Amino acid sequence: MAAEDDCVRKGGHLASVNSEQEQTDIGEYLNTKDTGYFWIWMGLTDLTKEGKWRWINGASLSYSNWLPRQPNQWGDQDCAYLSHKNFKWGDTECDEELFYLCEVY
Fold it and tell me: Given CB 3.0 to 4.6 Å as the disulfide criterion, which of 3, 41, 53, 67 pairs with 88?
């Protein structure tokens, strides 16, 4: 995924959301940006094992904020996005061209 590759080049990974407070902080940050995109990549995927969602940095999923009926695993939907409208999560194909949020350490 090109977004993750870019985040790694910057010394991090696509962002992970591990608590409601982090979700709120990310939402407040994104509200200050005009991304031009409705969906924003974050580092959540089930590429390794279908249906087992993990953060791209290897961490387990301990908090989630999925949209209703998500993840739906329809077709080849193995990567998660954050909706810029309500900051809920959904799954879609990993090759979508979306704005993305890096977490640099």
Answer: 67
